[in-house]
Amino acid sequence: MKIKFAVVGCGHIGKRHAEMIGRNSESELVALVDTKPKNLLDVEKFGVPFYNSLTELLDANLDIDVINIATPNGFHSAHAIQCLDSGKHVVIEKPIALSKNDAENVIYKALNVHKHVFAVMQNRYSPPSIWIKDLIDSGKLGKIYIVQLNCYWNRDERYYTSDSWHGSKELDGGTLFTQFSHFIDILYWLFGDINNIKTKFNNFNHSTLTDFEDSGFITFDFIKNGGMGSVNYSTSVWNQNLESSMTIIAEQGSVKIGGQYMDKVEYCHIKDYIMPELNPTNPGNDYGAYKGSAQNHNYVIENVVDVIKGRTTITTNALEGLKVVEIIETIYQGM
């Protein structure tokens, strides 16, 4: 039996979800939803019914198991609750909400209707991410001293267009929510929660494009195992992305993962350890002039199917999605 999916939001990411659903032999795309006219979205190729609102889709009473939410960030929690109320599992693109309170409301609803919430953090599936997770969990690095995360991307008027929700505080939420929440998730996944957060933000060249900062410095301590960390980020890089990198200085070695989307191991020197050969990383999402995170949505869909069929557990559950939102919200409270 195939798991039946609908996708709400037919932008670049929504169409990526639709494509990956179509490629999975155990899943089936049954509907698409977007507020824009169908002829402007290049979705005819999917060959499924198209609706102009989530309410219209739900009123159609189609046989749907899962609804994937790829709408603007500010709608994620409300759309998720509406889908859960209708008895559907939900897959929510990052972030699952723009506030801890809204994320908690999604989780509360899911618990009450006994449905799954899948938070999309596809960078966890990249071979360097899987490798460093295993390396840290094994204890081969010993005590973690310093972790530095650098995210330097380009987002300019080609991205923040006048007809886009990007750049709106209400719908976008901020640079950490839209551009770099994947990397906040990786930090939390690898090292746990943080405290003693100190911040510095600036809006260097986006004052006419966004309602929020384009650059920031963040320092913090790791609660669980000690050590300290920093996140330095900017979307003010001229013309094209520079890098997303993570450097780890530890008791028994040092590691750096770099590349545009943290997709390459650039340095590994660890006591009594030989670096294995990793599988190639999927290329980044191509948004015309822009690159995003790695294209691992196929693994997301595979995990959804496996969970619903009772074969495994959720890779990124709602509580983890909530924690990422909480960390970002706490960081922004320091502005």
Tell me what you see in this structure.
- The model is unreliable at 286-293 (pLDDT under 50).
- Helix content is 29%, strand content 27%.
- The longest helix is centred in the C-terminal third of the chain and has 15 residues, at 318-332.
- α3 (76-85) links the parallel β4 and β5 (89-92).
- It has 9 helices and 15 strands.
- With 335 residues, it is of the alpha/beta class.
- The strands form 3 sheets. Strands 8-9-10-7-11-12-13 form a 7-stranded mixed sheet, with helices on one face. The protein has a 6-stranded parallel sheet with strand order 3-2-1-4-5-6, with helices on both faces.
- The chain is globular and about 60 Å long.
How many distinct beta strands?
15
Query: How are helices and strands ordered from N to C?
Result: EHEEHEHEHEHEHHEEEEEEEEHH
Distance between the termini: 50 Å
Number of separate structural domains: 2
Q: Give the CATH superfamily of the largest domain.
A: Dihydrodipicolinate Reductase, domain 2
What would the principal axes of the Cα set say about the shape?
A: globular
The overall average pLDDT, rounded, is 94
Strand content: 25-35%
CATH class of the largest domain: Alpha Beta
SSE layout and pairings?
Blueprint: E1 3-8, H1 12-23, E2 27-33, E3 50-51, H2 54-59, E4 66-69, H3 76-85, E5 89-92, H4 100-113, E6 117-119, H5 127-138, E7 144-152, H6 175-178, H7 181-191, E8 194-202, E9 215-222, E10 228-234, E11 243-250, E12 253-258, E13 264-270, E14 284-287, E15 290-294, H8 297-308, H9 318-332
Parallel strand pairs: 1-2, 1-4, 2-3, 4-5, 5-6, 7-10
Antiparallel strand pairs: 7-11, 8-9, 9-10, 11-12, 12-13, 14-15
Helix pairs in contact: 3-4, 4-9, 7-9
